[in-house]
Amino acid sequence: MSATPDAVSTSRSPAAGTRGRWRPVGLADAKITGGFWSPRQQRNGDSAIPSGQDQLEKAGNLQNLRLAAGIGEGEAIGPVFADSDVYKWLEAAAWEYGRNPSEELLQRQRDLTAIVAAAQREDGYLDSVVQLRYGDEGRYKQLVWSHEHYCAGHLIQAAVAQVRCTGDRELLEVAIKLADHLVATFGDGKTVDVDGHPVIEMALVELYRETGTAAYLDLARWFVDARGHGIIKNHGHEPAYFSDRVPVREATTVEGHSVRAVYLAAGATDVAVETGDTELLEALKRQFAHMWSTKTYVTGGLGARWEGEAFGDEYELPSDRAYAETCAAIGGIQWAWRMLLATGEASYADAIERMLYNGFLAGVSLAGTEYFYVNALQLRGGAHADNGRSPAHGRRGWFDCACCPPNIMRTLASLDGYLASTSDGAIQIHQYVAGTLTAGEVTLTVETAYPWDGAVGITASGPIAVELRIPAWAEGATVNGKPVDAGTYAQVDAAAGDVIELKLPMATRVVGADPRVDAVRGCVALERGPLVYAVEQTDQEANVDDLHLLPQASVAASHDDQLLDGFTVLRTRGRAGTGHRDAVWPFATDSADGVGDEVDVVAVPYYAWANREIGAMRVWLPRG
Amino acid sequence: MSATPDAVSTSRSPAAGTRGRWRPVGLADAKITGGFWSPRQQRNGDSAIPSGQDQLEKAGNLQNLRLAAGIGEGEAIGPVFADSDVYKWLEAAAWEYGRNPSEELLQRQRDLTAIVAAAQREDGYLDSVVQLRYGDEGRYKQLVWSHEHYCAGHLIQAAVAQVRCTGDRELLEVAIKLADHLVATFGDGKTVDVDGHPVIEMALVELYRETGTAAYLDLARWFVDARGHGIIKNHGHEPAYFSDRVPVREATTVEGHSVRAVYLAAGATDVAVETGDTELLEALKRQFAHMWSTKTYVTGGLGARWEGEAFGDEYELPSDRAYAETCAAIGGIQWAWRMLLATGEASYADAIERMLYNGFLAGVSLAGTEYFYVNALQLRGGAHADNGRSPAHGRRGWFDCACCPPNIMRTLASLDGYLASTSDGAIQIHQYVAGTLTAGEVTLTVETAYPWDGAVGITASGPIAVELRIPAWAEGATVNGKPVDAGTYAQVDAAAGDVIELKLPMATRVVGADPRVDAVRGCVALERGPLVYAVEQTDQEANVDDLHLLPQASVAASHDDQLLDGFTVLRTRGRAGTGHRDAVWPFATDSADGVGDEVDVVAVPYYAWANREIGAMRVWLPRG
């Protein structure tokens, strides 16, 4: 029942369908072979995924499924969405097997798949926690909180990944049975209700792409359209929390719980593309643009509020209390990827880059096995961790609500799929990583030390039209020595044996914020290439809480291979603030900062913070 | 069983005991007769208190007590702490009766008291929700969340107020029976546990003062000392939430849930004073100072975080997401009052003034019958209310968790008690309000239009030493024409018939913030006298979200008797920012604000905001 990855021809990434502008590359057609991301994928496969399975065992997620399968006796443990973490792990394991097949990993997947299959009820229903806690009578009774569709969605995503990467169809059969049960149960004239937590929409479209069964696409569309009419009521949060205040096609922004919002938007994008619904796609463009211009952190982090894990108001982007959940960055990447394929607009690939290298990557330790749930852009010295998710704890091995760790695992294992896309006669390269990309008969070999160096060499094995994303930050970029426009795709027709030389300018950028972003008024952040930088206490002479950058100080970049797993360090000059240490009241007519001593300032990539020690950190530094 | 207020001789405010420096004034010895606060008290008595009883009926709080008393049948409704709102209302009604006796109000209190007495169990236990939901077996089983001591504390406070103001002893008998039950149940060798929500500590000390029963003081001390040793564990929040991370006498700051923290601190201050525990008092001084210098808003608001309704880290004071619960301001006033009486330090009276006129007073509408739970210092235009407590709703008539409204009622009704204190041969005047103050045989008549005007005239009926608080902000103040030091008490020996003339300078102050308060970097706030000002959209030419103050613009103050209930308006000049309305990404190298048109800027007292319309508002304005 298994197949080697090479024998599998379907796409590893969501297929764009006929109406999208670009198609994702197929399973074997994009391979990261070195550079920045390769060791991260390696650690994900070697350490994170095996340790993730141990964590699922320890936390009881696997035991819940065994109990539901009639193996042993006991009560369900943990949160109501416990199954979803197992499914995300199964998806990660499938992509990892596709990337780097091993018999052991295949066996792990088969063992877990057997448990999942055994837990499924005769009629296709599956949710171990609901089965154990509430029985058949409890099905879909509390859909707003039960996460039954959410778990189903992650199961379907795992099943699709599994069949694509291993050829195994066991989990797909479970997913189809469950999807058929959903089709039979929900819709007009049936049960009219939606899950409090979206993801089923993306999953059903993907299952439609895999199987061709139109009923799955129809149900996905129905779920998208059902929201926003007050279908979710009186559940302890206002409808906005559940993205249920405004119909998706009328919404002008994202709001409420950020992961829910971007998962829904990604699924709605899939629906729009597959059904040719241009009105819906336009609405999603509008929402993405508003999110990106008013509700996104400089790191690409999404979600300003701890309360409700939610998007804030326009320009409400506090650094210290940024929520910026790792899962929201992942959902943001998934949404942007679908928008990119649908529209061919470079800005979506720029958005993916920003989220990937910053808001997402900070969520995982360099070792690969510790995680941030919350990705703050500032931590003060001596901050007290009063919540299990507090950044002041540093990254942690697992969480009571463990949505982020296996979400990171599946993203890293499937990263190759986000590098490129194809259209008739052309290939688009979106992210620059050492590796190979294939379109038809032609293979492109990409060599680069990006993001440390802006030089990218691409060798074509045959004639092909290549479209290279020039990031919007890359003013002055050249392709084969000729200037190209930032924020677009540069077109190159390559002949066999040609080497395309892309040069992206890697000068450090000192960026300010729109004055309406009150939280960082008077501050700047440092960026270099796709990376946002941060200052950590361990590198500074002065107290980070008091540090100011000198207005005109130059910034020097130097690569340090020895520091952690190697990165480019930025050095500039600042001054220690004098603050008002002894003030009994901090708001006075003379509260202007005194002039402190000049000091060196060292900045490291934001993603790398808290890998040496947990201490004060800032992305935004006062200047002046 | 009743008595007129004049016949009651005990103090209306918490008695300071023998070891405090100053004594609160007695029941009939401080009377607000006009000026700023009198109409607010009037509306509180005429509108808010009667309407509060209706709300308690509608929300089911009273019904719970009836059911527990065996009147009717049904289940408990509402939050587990529902009884406490009834008790806070009873306390408010008692103080109001003391201020302005009416037979109708007395009858209302007696009717409710009869229900409370009937709900009490034979052995003294009383908590209607626990009785109805969990029965006798459920007592004190979930003390961390059940609020049984919290409800008991508010009952005791109401009972003490009732006996002091009406002479009725019925509620006091209930309180004593319940307190005796607590004494018999909790302590070393008995049940070792504490309530998740403090307030019982303050209440037991007050009951000790009223009855002389030392066991109540002992139990209060035991509750204070039991905390901070991990007595509260595994309850969904970390111990800091419950002020249980560090023992009170070792703590150096306030942390966790802000109302819980300041109620506990106020109770601990009572314990310290009554037991002569100078070590504990020193710890509380340290905690108050740290709170005031690093965790207090310019409005005196306490609690920076929605998540956990908690104090944030040092200098974490966001304007937009300020929680600053109205109850926390009330608790802060109660704590500062106890610290003032204990130490005689003017800074505590300054703190009371700041909280009272700003963070507290904004919590109630000018009509007196609508309330803010959360007191933000900024609301952006078009902000969406995604929570019942969101300031974007404007003030509301009641809340599912209705702790704030009756807390405001009891504070306004008992405000007279915070005006002054006495020591041997002297009277201290802390707050300047038109009214009369009596110390022994001497009556002082205070005449003033404060806070609109800084002139205060005080006429003495006989010889007396008067100590006048000169606020720390009042540099240049004079008493009888002679300069006095700000931040101290000015001493005046008055003879019979003397008129003391205090002049407080009422120039507008443009205040900045300690540079470590990241949230308001580059901004200033306007203050005049004890009032913090705010700009509301309804008064501006320009968009409040974009508004900047001109650096050198002068500020003109003018009194407008016609605007709402009359207040002094501030006018200055600013400019409309140009922002980056069309930016697709708000963080760029050229994000500095453009120069917009010059405009008039109008500021109104912060407490008065959202009484005309709910729209954009800012306390802190960018300057430059």
From TrEMBL, chains A, B:
Polar residues bias: start-end ranges: 1-13
Keyword Cell inner membrane: no
Signal peptide: none
Gene3D superfamilies in the record: 1.50.10.20
Domain Non-reducing end beta-L-arabinofuranosidase-like GH127 catalytic span(s) in chain numbering: 31-416
GO BP annotation list: carbohydrate metabolic process
Domain Non-reducing end beta-L-arabinofuranosidase-like GH127 middle: 427-506
Keywords tagged on the record: Hydrolase
Chain spans, region Disordered: 1-23
Pfam families attached to this UniProt entry: Beta-AFase-like_GH127_cat, Glyco_hydro127C, Glyco_hydro127M
Keyword Hydrolase: yes
Domain Non-reducing end beta-L-arabinofuranosidase-like GH127 C-terminal per the UniProt entry, residue ranges: 509-622
GO molecular function terms attached to this record: hydrolase activity
Listed InterPro entries: 6-hairpin_glycosidase_sf, Beta-AFase-like, Beta-AFase-like_GH127_C, Beta-AFase-like_GH127_cat, Beta-AFase-like_GH127_middle
PANTHER family membership: DUF1680 DOMAIN PROTEIN (AFU_ORTHOLOGUE AFUA_1G08910)
Protein name per UniProt: Glycoside hydrolase family 127 protein
Lineage, uppermost ranks: Bacteria, Bacillati, Actinomycetota, Actinomycetes, Propionibacteriales
